[in-house]
Amino acid sequence: MQKTFDSQPIFIGGDGRSGTTLLSVILDSHPELAVGPELHFNGPENLGEYVEDCLELLIAEDPRVFGKGLKENKHYKLGTQFAKRCHRFGLEFDELRELIINLKNQTNISFAKFEERCVLVNAIGEKIANKRRKKTWGIKIMREIKGLSKYGKIWPNAHFIHIIRDGRDVTASQMKEHETWGYGDVQEAAKSWVSIIEKARKNGRAYNYYEIKYEDIVLRPEDTLKQLMKEMSLPWDDALLKHNEIDHSIYKNPYNHASIDSIVKPINESAVGRHKRDLTIEQIQAFNKIARKMLKELRYEVE
C-alpha cells in the first residue's frame, strides 16, 4: 500500500533540544496553521487494535495505563504514549478511538506498516485542522528529518523545516538534563549532530526543505519568521511573535513534556550559548574537533 496525499503538511525536524517545540507553538499561533508536537508514530506495534486497546483503558481511567500501573504493564507503554501525544495535539481519547475505528472499517488495514500509519496520521492532522478551523496541519518528526524522503513520498507537497541549534548547546542540554535519552558523551553528540544535518540536506533536495537556526529565531524573531513565511508562501501574522499569549493544546495537556517550562514564556535568548557554562573546556574542544567544519559553515563561533 502506497497512498499519497495532495495536502501540504508541515514537518518540523531537528536534533533533540534544538527548539523544535518552540517552533511548533510559534507556527501553531498562525491563524492558518495547526501544528502539534511529535507523535513518534513508528513506535507502537500498530496504530490499530493495539492503540485502540490502550485508548479503551485510558478512557476508563484504568490504573494499568497510569503511573506505577503503566510501569508494571509495559505492554501498554508505547500505545499509551501515542495516545497522549495525540492528546497534546488536541485530540481527545474518545475522538482518536472513534477515528481509528472508522478508518479501520473504511480501509480494512491494521496501521502496522509505515505507509498505513501515515493514513491515520494524515486523518488525525486533517481532523484537528478542521476542528480548529485551520487550513494546514503539522507535527514534529525530530531526528527523522534525516530520512525525510520516506515522508516526502507520502506527502510530496509537504514543507520540511529543519531547525538547527548550535550543536554544543544541544549537547549541553541533553547531557545535563536528559540522561535517559540524551547523548552519552560529546564525541557521540558531535558525530550525530553533523550526520543529521548532512543527511537531511541530502534527502531534502527533492522536496520543500528549509533550514532555520534556533539562534536566529530568538535573536531576530520577526525578520527570521517573516522569511520563513515567505518561503512557505504564507501570509505574515503578528501572532507568530506572541505564542505565549495563545491557548495551545500542549499547555493544557503537557504530559511532562521536556520543554513545557520554556515554551510558556515569550521568545527569549536565555538559552543561547549555554555550553560555555555547562560544558568543560575539554568537552567543547572535543566537540569542535569533530564538528569544526559544520560549525563554521553555520557561522557558529569556534573558540
UniProtKB/TrEMBL annotation:
One Pfam family assigned to this protein is: Sulfotransfer_3
Q: Which UniProt keywords apply?
A: Transferase
Keyword Coiled coil present in the record's keywords: the answer is: no
**GO molecular function, a single term:** protein-tyrosine sulfotransferase activity
Q: What is this protein called?
A: Sulfotransferase family protein
Q: Organism source for this protein?
A: Tindallia magadiensis
